[in-house]
Amino acid sequence: MTRHRLFWPAAALVALLLGNVAVSPRFFAVEIRDGHLYGNLIDILRNGAPLILVAVGMTLVVATRGIDLSVGAVVAVSGGMACVQLGSTSVVLAVAIALGLCLVLGAWNGWLVAGLKIQPIVATLILMVAGRGLAQLITGGQIVTVSSGPFLAIAGGYLLTLPLSFLIAMAVFALTSLVVRRTALGLLLESVGGNPEASRLSGLRSGRLIWLCYVFSALCAGIAGLIISSNVTGADGNNAGLWMELDAILAVVIGGTQLTGGRFSLGGTVIGALLIQTLTTTVYALGIPSQETLLFKAVVVTAVCLVQSPAFRAKLVRRRRRPGPPAPVAAPEKVEVAS
Amino acid sequence: MNQSRAILRMTGIHKRFPGVTALDDVDFRLFPGEVHALMGENGAGKSTLIKVLTGVEGVDAGTIELAGSPVSFGGPDQAQRAGVSTVYQEVNLCPNLSVAENIFIGREPRRFGRIQWSRMRKRAEELLARLDLHVDVSAELGTQSIAVQQMVAIARALDVQARVLVLDEPTSSLDAKEVEQLMDVLRALRADGMAILFVSHFIDQVFAIADRMTVLRNGKLVGEYPTAEMTPVELVRKMIGKELAALDELEVSERSRPDADRPVLVAADGLGRSGAIEPFALTVRRGEVVGLAGLLGSGRTELARLLFGADHADAGTVDVDGQRVHLRSPRVAMKHRIAFCSENRKTEGLIAELTIRENIALAVQADRGWLRPIPRRRQLELAARYIEALDIRPADPEAVVGTLSGGNQQKVLLARWMATEPRLLILDEPTRGIDIGAKAEIQRLVASLSEDGMAVLFVSAELEEVLRLSHHVAVLRDRRVVAQLANEGLTPEEIMSTIADGTGS
Question: Given an 8 Å threshold on Cβ–Cβ distance, is A183 in contact with B340?
Fold first, then answer.
């Protein structure tokens, strides 16, 4: 079972959740208030939605050997655009304009990477910086607040007792998985990421595929931006989605997709994103002082990465075997058989 | 020689991978001052034995002794420090670094922590001079030919104070002259007391250089023999474990020849690309095998790539079925049902982390576009068909291609292109670095495909192979097509003299 590629990320997530229960037994408590579910677990799903969205888009980009550093800035642009537009138009139109702008930004990233063959980290760094500027330009450097009910429902609403934002993220995830695995897109992406030249010589139009991934990544970031600005009832060009690209990359990696491209796992990414969100919730639940938060997170993430590394696990097993007399040597072997 | 003590002794080596026993109770010994050939078909366990020796893989059971004391290397770098240097089949260097940097990477000459660049370059030149190779050592390695890269890999191995030199298929990308050069180097090293483990598919080379040979078959030891007491036929029999009927069948050169009035499938006229290949004319008829003969670097691959649109031609025209076509990308060539198996299966052919099924389906899928996926059931059928037809091992469509042996990888690549049902199949060195059994199968396959009407452009460094299969041979020299000969009893000598003269007769 440990061979399954989702085993270690899932095990880490479960361990973190159990750790929370051990410290505060009420952690898993879920109750119904005002007709919707309420509790720490629901908070994780609700607040984790933007990261899930951004990370799902990032996964496809990473699968092509790329990386998208601009997602955090795109989050800010999307939120800013929507909130500004809400002042003059309907919710649907505002959302459409915001997402349309994100598609343009994604097309720009994709053109730099696939058309001009600029290294992805450099190409998207441009928008990572410029996007923040654009967001501030759109919001006029102010924090734009909104009060439109339907817009606030994006993050605050519930459907069938579940938070709407989480359902949106799950819908995007499910749709993406379906498209990627039911069409040949997944295979072609893995092929392009695994060996670009061999893919070209097999007749793949890798440029178009790669371009598409950046467009999709920006779209996902755009939706995440809507959720975030809805959640805080306003747009903050400076801070919305700040450093989110790093969390997203981390979620992708924890989920088992390698930055070297090729094989990817959307399910793993969702688990990775939930893990990161659980960590944030844990920090609040345990009442860890804010000055220790980052260090605490770093320690947990390091532990997760170590546990996922086959080399590290092999080392642990070897170390356990070496000093023991013959009898206990059998024990770790049994563990392996069982696995 | 037998009186001296073995420098290396491997005893009772067992190695299992998930699903297969790669090595089963294998013994091996190596003496100073000998060239010892390790022989066996693809998948016989040669590469695994080398990996176990150099610490790339651990052993499940058995002992390895170096100079009498047991060792267990944690990796190739440890092995190298202990005096066991390895040159791998696929050149394992950094193409973006200079020649000199590649030789000294990880152990650059330093002074006060600073790399001594001039000393490094000078020593690199000395080392390469020992191999009779004179190139600009500050040039990027990637700009050099594969043959030069191979020599650089050997120079790198020699620089460490090696006592044991392991050469895994060192000659598979070298031309005849370079092979001779390498053999001279090996003889000199042997005379210095170096113990050399030599793996090669070229049986004549093994007989020319090896003192003794160890034969493996299906992960088991067949035996260890002095070369003087062996004959090539005997050796092949021990390797494949059956009689040579399969090889005799290869002598199919008396094949039916397509008539000259068969329709022309592909006609190139004045096609060329500066710096790669001078303008040439070439026609390939339906059902015809056209061979490309020439030394390494004579432009064989460059010619083949132009016909597939892998590179852009900057002059000339191509007609397919009498229609002018513009081969601006592989995709366009594929639309005209042209297929191309690259000589570099690792870098330009396979997607190592994908499965056999996915690799075989890839070209067909690329042609259909991502919106029209091949149903999984059909992918499996496709994979099963070619696994059976080409005898791909393991016969598991979900096996990851990167774990396959070289010959089986080549078959997967072939299967990918056969699945596209091409009218012109371009094969660039399809038999390089694969064992004699797989080679025979691929040759037979080419013959039968052409009999069924497929046109084949066959590129190979082995003249015998080109002559055995081709109806026509285009001879290249210095990036120019110098002659086109009908293969009516052509001999390798005639081809060689054509290459040497540089003129068509």
Answer: no
**Domain contains B346:** no
Q: Decide: residue A30, CB within 10 A, 0-12 exposed, 13-18 middle, 19+ buried.
A: exposed
User: What pLDDT, on the 0 to 100 scale, is given for residue A65?
Assistant: 93
Q: How many domains does chain B have?
A: 3
Residue B309 sits at the chain A interface (C-beta within 8 Å): no
Report the C-alpha gap between B488 and B496 in whole angstroms: 16
Taking an 8 Å cut-off on Cβ atoms, the answer to whether A183 and B354 are in contact is no
Residues B47 and B184 in one domain: yes
B142 has a chain A CB within 8 A of its CB = no
Residues 248-307 of A with CB under 8 A from B: 262-263
Q: Do B149 and B201 belong together in one domain?
A: yes
Q: What is the CATH number of the domain that holds B151?
A: 3.40.50.300
Q: Could you say which residues of chain B have pLDDT below 70?
A: 1-4, 19, 42, 89-91, 160, 172-173, 240-260, 296, 502-505
Yes or no: say if B446 and B414 are a contact pair by the CB < 8 Å rule.
no
CB contact residues (below 8 A), chain A span 157-176, against chain B: none
Domain positions in chain A are 7-307, 309-339
B324 and B384 housed in the same domain: no
Beta-bridged to residue B273, according to DSSP, are B277
B371 touching A (Cβ < 8 Å): yes
- DSSP summary character for residue A28: G
In chain A, what residues touch B358 (CB-CB under 8 Å)? 187, 190-191
Six token digits for residue B335: 């639309």
Q: Which of A182, A183, A203 sits opposite B366 (nearest CB)?
A: A203
Q: Is residue B345 part of a domain?
A: no
Same-domain pairing of B238 and B262: no
Domain around B315? 244-337+422-505
- Of B204, B224, B242, the position where a domain reaches its end is B242
Q: Are B403 and B496 in a shared domain?
A: no
**B284: exposed, middle or buried (Cβ count in 10 Å: 0-12, 13-18, 19+):** buried
Q: Within chain B, how many helices (H) and strands (E) appear?
A: 17, 22
Decide: B325 and B318 in contact? Cβ < 8 Å.
yes
Instruction: Work out the minimum CA distance from B203 to partner chain A, whole angstroms.
Output: 31
Same domain membership, residue B416 and residue B437: no
Using one digit for the tens of pLDDT, what is the confidence trace for B158-179? Answer: 776 788 989 888 776 677 777 8
The answer, for A190 touching chain B at a CB cutoff of 8 Å, is yes
Among B373, B404, B421, where does a domain finish? B421
Q: Burial level of B135, CB count in 10 A (0-12/13-18/19+)? A: middle
Q: Which amino acid is at B368?
A: R
Please tell me if residue B310 touches chain A, with a CB cutoff of 8 Å: yes
Residue of B nearest to A180 (CA): B370
Q: Does A201 sit within 8 Å of B365, measured CB to CB?
A: no
Mean pLDDT of A85-101: 93
Global confidence as pTM: 0.74
| Mean pLDDT of the residues in chain B | 85
Helix (H, G, I), strand (E, B) or coil at A288: coil
Give the distance between the most distant pair of CA atoms in chain A. Answer: 78
Judged by DSSP in three states, B6 sits in coil
Is A205 an interface residue toward B (CB < 8 Å)? yes
Q: Select A7-307's CATH number: 1.25.40, 1.10.3470, 3.40.50, 2.160.20.
A: 1.10.3470
> Which is it for strands A144-145 and B277-285: parallel, antiparallel or unpaired?
unpaired
Q: With respect to residue B298, please indicate whether it lies within any of the assigned structural domains.
A: yes
pLDDT in tens, B382-433: 999 999 988 888 889 999 998 888 888 999 999 999 999 999 999 998 888 7
